[in-house]
Design brief:
single chain, 593 residues, alpha/beta, ten-stranded mixed sheet, 12 helices
C-alpha cells in the first residue's frame, strides 16, 4: 500500500503533527496502529516511566534487610533487595492471573505490578556502591547512576569506562575529571563541555584534541591557549597562575567570563560527528536517523530516538536503550532485544508487548518482572497455541475498552503506558529533568507528584560561610551539614543540605578546586541545563556575510556566499530565544575547522 503524508492533532497537547509515508510503512511493518500523540508528547510520556536520581530508605519485603530503593515510601509496589530479587526464592510466574475482559487491560496490568516483586535498584555485577542505581560492573561509586565499568566516581551520570572522577555526566573514557559534560577521552579536565580527546585543561567547550588550554571554544588540536589566544609553553605556565580555581570567588568570576566569551563565538547548529543523513543533536556514528538525540556507536535507520546506541537499528520512539536492539517501538530502556513494543526495560528478549522488567523472555504480553519465560500473559503461562489465540482478542479488547485517564486521554492498543499509571511521580523521573513542571502543572496534566518528607537534620554551616579557598579547608568540614545555596527553592530535587565526604575532600584537594556550594542534585541539574533539549527548531544561519547577524562576531575568512547573508536553513536544538550565535555547517567549518 502506498501511503501519503498525513497531518493529525495530538490527543495530548492539541497541536498539529505530521505522519510521513515512511512512518506509516514502519507501523505497518510491526503491525501497530499509527500514533495519536505528537513526537514530543510521546517522548515525555516515556520519560515519565524512567526513574531519575530519587532514592529512598526502605526494607526488603523478603529478607527484611534495610535497603536503598528507587520506590518512595508511598509507593504501592512490592520491593526486594538485589540479592533476593535475583535469588531462587520466588518466580514471577507465581503471580500470574487470568485475563479479565470486564476491565481495561492497562488497569489489570497496573494491579499486577503492585504484587510482583520489583528490584530495589538496578545495579549489576558491582561492588561498594553507595546511593547508586543502574550501574553495571562498577566499583567504589557514590551517587552515580547508569554507569558502565567505572571506578571511584562520585555524583556522576552515565559514566562509561571512567575512573577517579566527580560531578561529571555522559562521559566515555575519562580519568580525573571534574564538572565535565558529554565528552569522550578526557583526562584531568575541569569544567569541560562537549569536547573530545582533551587533557590538562579547564573551561573548554566544543574543543577536540587540545591540551593545556583554558577558557577556550571551538579549538582543534591546540596547546597552550587561554581564551583562544596562543601562548608559548613558558608564557602559558606563567599566565595560568592568574586563573586560580582553588578560590570560590575567583571561580565564579572565571565562569562569568567564560560564558560571556562563549556567547560571542558562533556555535555549530548541531553536534554531529561521523554521521550521515541525520537530523537531531548530539549524534555520533549514526546513520539514516531523523529527530534523534544523544546517539552513540552505530544507531541506524531510526526515528524519534533519545539516548541510545551500541548498534540499535530500525526503531522508532525509544529512549535509554541499545546494544544490538532492533524493531523497538514506544519503549523505555532495555538492551539486546528485538520486536519489543510499548514496554519498559526489556533485556535479551524478543516479541514483547506492554511489559516491564523482562529478562531473557519471548512472546510475553502484559508481564512484569519475569525471567526466562515464553508465552505468558499477565505473568500466566500458556501454551503456544493458547497464547496465539488469546493475543488478538486482548488487542481488540483494548480497542473496545480502553483506559481513560482523569484528563480524558484515551489509551487504546498502540499507546504507551498512561501517565497516571506510571511507577513513579513526575518529579522523580527524566521527564521532569528535561521538561520541568511545577507541582500544579504536573497534576493538571495527569501526572503524579511526590512530596518529600520533612527532613530532620540541622544545618551547621551555610554555603556562604564555607572557606573561599580549598587550601583553607580543614578536616573538620567532614562533620558539617552544609546548607545548599538553593535552599530547596529551585524545583531541582534539592536536598537542601549536603555533606562533604572524605573521598570528595581528598579529590578537591588533589585537583586544587574550591568546594561546591550546591547539593549534588542541584549541581547535576545545573550541568544538565547546559545540554540542548531533545527537540528541534527550524532556523536560518546567522552568518550575515562578513559578520554574524547580530554584529557580535567578525568572520575571519571569506565564506562561499561571499559578503551576502548565508541562506542555509536547518533543524537545530538551539531555539531562537537563546543568546548563541548559530552557524550552519559550512559557515562553522570555514571559521573553525
Amino acid at each position: 500500500m502506498e501511503y501519503k503524508q498525513e497531518k493529525r492533532i495530538c490527543q495530548n497537547c492539541k497541536k498539529d503533527f505530521t505522519i510521513e509515508p515512511e512512518d506509516f510503512n514502519f507501523y505497518e511493518k510491526i503491525k501497530v496502529p499509527s500514533p495519536t500523540w505528537c513526537p514530543e508528547c510521546r517522548m515525555i510520556r516515556r520519560l515519565a516511566y524512567r526513574e531519575d536520581r530519587s532514592l529512598y530508605k526502605d526494607k526488603c519485603e523478603n529478607c527484611n534487610k534495610e535497603i536503598i530503593s528507587i520506590y518512595n515510601e508511598n509507593s504501592p509496589f512490592k520491593v526486594y533487595c538485589i540479592s533476593c530479587w535475583h535469588g531462587d526464592s520466588w518466580d514471577g510466574i507465581e503471580y500470574g492471573r487470568e485475563y479479565d475482559f470486564s476491565k481495561p487491560f492497562l488497569e489489570q496490568f497496573y494491579e499486577l505490578q503492585k504484587v510482583v516483586p520489583n528490584q530495589a535498584t538496578g545495579s549489576k555485577n558491582s561492588s561498594d556502591l553507595g546511593y547508586c542505581n543502574g550501574n553495571i560492573r562498577c566499583k567504589n561509586c557514590m551517587l552515580t547512576f547508569d554507569g558502565y565499568e567505572s571506578i571511584n566516581c562520585y555524583n556522576c551520570q552515565t559514566p562509561g569506562f571512567v575512573r577517579d572522577s566527580m560531578d561529571s555526566d555522559f562521559i566515555i573514557n575519562g580519568d580525573h575529571i571534574y564538572e565535565t559534560l558529554d565528552s569522550n577521552g578526557v583526562y584531568n579536565t575541569k569544567f569541560v563541555y562537549f569536547s573530545d580527546e582533551c587533557m590538562d585543561s579547564a573551561f573548554l567547550l566544543n574543543c577536540i584534541g587540545c591540551s593545556n588550554c583554558f577558557g577556550c571554544v571551538n579549538l582543534r588540536n591546540q596547546k597552550y591557549c587561554i581564551f583562544n589566544k596562543k601562548y608559548t609553553k613558558e608564557e602559558y605556565e606563567k599566565e595560568i597562575k592568574n586563573w586560580n580555581l582553588s578560590s570560590y570567588g575567583t571561580l565564579k568570576k572565571i565562569e562569568e567570563k567564560f560564558w560571556d566569551f562563549y556567547y560571542k563565538i558562533p556555535r555549530r547548529f548541531a553536534l554531529i560527528t561521523n554521521s550521515v543523513n541525520v537530523t537531531g543533536d548530539d549524534l555520533r556514528n549514526t546513520k539514516n536517523c531523523q529527530f534523534c538525540f544523544a546517539t552513540r556507536m552505530g544507531v541506524e535507520n531510526s526515528k524519534f530516538i533519545f539516548m541510545a546506541g551500541l548498534l540499535m537499528k530500525d526503531s522508532y520512539d525509544a529512549i535509554l536503550c541499545g546494544g544490538n536492539t532492533e524493531l523497538y517501538y514506544e519503549n523505555t530502556g532495555g538492551m539486546h532485544s528485538q520486536r519489543c513494543f510499548f514496554s519498559r526495560a526489556c533485556y535479551d528478549s524478543k516479541d514483547i508487548e506492554y511489559s516491564n522488567k523482562i529478562y531473557n523472555c519471548s512472546n510475553c504480553f502484559g508481564c512484569t518482572n519475569l525471567k526466562n519465560k515464553k508465552y505468558c500473559i499477565l505473568n500466566k503461562q500458556y501454551t503456544k497455541e493458547e497464547y496465539e489465540e488469546l493475543i488478538p482478542k486482548i488487542k481488540q479488547h483494548m480497542m473496545d475498552m480502553p483506559h481513560i485517564d482523569s484528563c480524558g486521554k484515551i489509551y487504546k492498543y498502540g499507546e504507551h503506558f498512561p501517565s497516571d499509571l506510571s511507577l513513579f511521580s513526575y518529579n522523580e523521573t527524566w521527564a521532569h529533568k528535561y521538561f520541568p513542571l511545577s507541582k500544579e502543572e504536573a497534576l493538571e496534566k495527569g501526572f503524579k507528584w511526590h512530596e518529600e518528607k520533612e527532613r530532620n537534620y540541622r544545618v551547621t554551616l551555610k554555603a556562604e560561610d564555607l572557606p573561599d579557598d580549598i587550601k583553607d579547608v580543614e578536616d573538620s568540614i567532614l562533620n558539617e551539614v552544609i546548607e545548599c545555596e538553593h535552599k530547596g527553592e529551585c524545583n531541582e530535587q534539592c536536598t537542601e543540605a549536603f555533606r562533604i565526604l572524605p573521598n570528595e575532600l581528598q579529590f578537591h584537594r588533589q585537583i586544587n578546586i574550591t568546594l561546591p556550594h550546591l547539593c549534588p542534585n542541584c549541581r547535576y541539574i545545573q550541568r544538565t541545563k547546559k545540554k540542548n533539549p531533545p527537540k528541534l527548531w527550524h532556523r536560518k544561519c546567522m552568518c550575515n556575510g562578513v559578520e554574524s547577524k547580530d554584529g557580535v562576531y567578525k568572520n575571519t575568512i571569506k565564506h562561499t556566499h561571499d559578503n551576502s547573508p548565508c541562506q542555509n536553513e536547518f533543524e537545530t536544538a538551539i531555539s531562537d530565544e537563546r543568546k548563541e550565535i548559530v552557524y550552519c555547517e559550512k559557515c562553522y567549518q570555514a571559521e573553525f575547522v
